[in-house]
Amino acid sequence: MEPTNVHDPEYYHKVVDCQYACPAHTPVPEYIRLIAAEKYTEAYMVNWESNVFPGVLGRTCDRPCEPACRRGRVDEEPVAICRLKRVAADNKGDITHLLPKIPTKGNGKRIALIGGGPASLTVARDLAPLGYEIHVFDEQIKGGGMMRSQIPSFRLPESVLDEEVNNILNLGIHQHFKTYVSSLKSVLDDGYDAVFIGTGAPRGRDLSNLPGRAEGQANIHVGIEWLASVAFEHTKQIGKKVIVLGGGNTAMDCCRTSRRLGGEEVKVVVRSPFSEMRASPWEKEDAQHEDIPILDNHVPVSFVSENGKLKGMTFEKVHAVYDEKGKRSLVPTGEPHVFIEADDVLVAIGQENYFPWIERDLGIEFDKWEMPSVNSLTFQSTNEKVFFGGDAALGPKNVITAVAQGHSAAVSIDLYCQGKSLDVRPDPFTNLVSQKMGIHEWSYDSIVTNDDRFVVPQAEKALTLKDRKKEVELGFDKLVGFKEAERCLNCDIQTVFTENRCIECDACMDVCPTDCITFTTNGTEEDLRTRLMAPSLRLDQDLLVSDTLAATGRVMVKDEDVCLHCGLCAERCPTSAWDMQKFFYNTTKAHHGCGQH
Amino acid sequence: MTYIRPTFRHPDLPKNKINFTKKDYEGALSTLCAGCGHDSISGAIAQACFELSVEPHRIAKLSGIGCSSKTPAYFLGNSHGFNSVHGRMPSVATGAYLANRDLLYFGVSGDGDSASIGMGQFVHAIRRNLNMVYLVMNNGCYGLTKGQDSATADNGSKSKAGSVNQFNAIDLVGLSMELGATFVARSFSGDKAQLIPLIKAAIKHPGFAFIDVISPCVTFNNNVGSTKSYDYVREHIEATSTVDFVPIMEEITANYEDSKEITLHDGSALQLQKLHQGWNPEDKLSAMIALQNAKEKGEILTGLVYIEPNTNALHDVLQTAKTPLNILNEDVLCPGIDALEALNESLR
How many domains does chain B divide into? Predict the structure, then answer.
């Protein structure tokens, strides 16, 4: 293999699995170390700069970082990254002086943001400090979008959301709430320099064609609409027996909300097998903990009403069959249909984009699924003035993806307004610095602790089920937060190898607890992976390959897969050919939030 | 202080025939200098025992005093160990071996421990042909007392302080062959590909197996002008052959013209390739000639030097009891008055 090009920032970035997996590339180990050092405010700001809503995401994020976490490959469970973020948010001090300053004189450019959710607010946060005049439009009474309308208060207290939304709106954003934009043309006609569309995926799917749907109308609700209605306090109760259809996180929010509004026998009924449900495992657990059974492999057949009143639903039992390509089909088991009683049914089987307010003659192309044609790097549409982000851009995902897309769109809007090419994008900020302090002394806690993942304590079920607004999770306290933070392997502290210092004493190879390092003759990647000290099975994990070594003509090959970043290789290296160096990667943004860069 | 080894290991570590992973053959984290050749040898010993599926509790590690003799703390943490007096490891080994012939004896010594203070003990252990592995970690200096020349330092080798050694070195390999050792090898700590099969063969050898391992002292003897530095050894190293250890029941695959197989006493084999010209490992004379020729040319000859696969170790010579003393019961040890009388009768 050719020597690894470690000057490409993406190489070391990929080693930081959590950060690499995060759509916004939040510097996870950096803020976890700050939490361990009780620097909660600093930890919060590292997050804020990157993901804009640390308090919200520390409670509700889909956490793509956690399945990626290296700890999960050597230990039972990954670091509780998401809930550590909440520790920073819960314990931070006053941050007002750390927020960006808005220039007294604007740059003369006006930007309209349609929709007040996470994507739009991210664009606002990135562009306002650069002197843009930002106008945000939303039909709701407050900002936050789906974070307000779809995430129940028992998971995300309104005060946390308000604080983080207001931190942005207070950056001199012109607010137009309770304003439904019914025509993009009229917005464009108002002379904005650019328009950003972050209107989410506002339409919940329904089962319009299922027999009995019309008769049961009064007691059949579309999940996300019903959640919004609860959030804005239009709906305050539900029947005793509730069926929630669907297996995603919205279904979990629907069933748990039902339990708080009078639902006593709430059941989730889903077509797919339990293990293939789209909901996050922890959300399924939380629902089951609240005595909500999840009935899998049940396909809806009909709604059943009597005398115009919904009585329940019938389902056909199926099982999953997979063909050679792994494609699943649900095949009826032949058992008799199952009838389940219900006073109300919530349909939470997915949501869709919906752009009735965008005229089709504005130069924005739409595909056959009525989705706008959006560049997935620049987030520009085929109308150069119009940008998309969040669920509105490429379909429903999650908050952290919306934030990441908001950052990218903000970079594009800034470039566009300066008349620059959108394809020549500023580089990410990177830095690589030695952490050696002395003999046996590194500037990070290199000791790998043995603690199992700590469980986040919850409030008493008896209390939380009575009050829709009572937050269920209590969060880690400072001590447990510290211990959980210490589980982090500090994957951003890179093992940096300098060939011409190596005397090939093999000390690193001998001491490495996880057999990552091998000195051997060079070969192709496929061949090398068969000749390493330990099996090299995860092909998505890179090999760090040195240049040819002078003394023996061999190369050093390090499999990054299960490196614990314990620093023992550098500790046992007599010539400092190995060094532990902190790699900092800050993804490209129009403005870096706290004004440090 | 961040010098603590994590307890996590590679999740897909292979297991040997007795279901152990390499972790089961580890010892404590080394406190020797970073880069010490001894640590590589410790790693090679652990690896060899893992690959041979030796039960750790059937091994006894024996050592004297010195950097080398500290190393048994750093490998085979689940085995027996005896850290004896300086140069007196052979006596302890002899006693242990006589008391229990069923254990695998692994003696670890250094150039000071064997070639100076312990020379009198070392030669008699060879002469008696104890069934043990005797490995010398040879760095040509007294690393524990700031690097003075040892008895194996080559004439003309320069110390870190700049002084040149004016005495001839004791060649432990030549000496042990002269004294009748039945397995003699030399290796280099920086060449695990050679060292591990040699250790495995030495373990399988039924008599005294001697391995002299050149092991650079990074702190006191890795300077320019030293003949025991990493660079010097790599530049001057020559091998009698390549060495492959082939376990019992496994077929020997490659078969080249200049190769040789030596069947060891338990049925496993050593496969040697690229043989040194005129050298036959089973012919002591050719081995001594090869050794002398290399010395003349200033080469460091490594690899297997001499082997006598079927040898009679001390227990065979003395025809002692096959059962270890600790499990010999009273009824065997005191067979009663009738047996005594019969014995006395036979001597009349």
Answer: 1
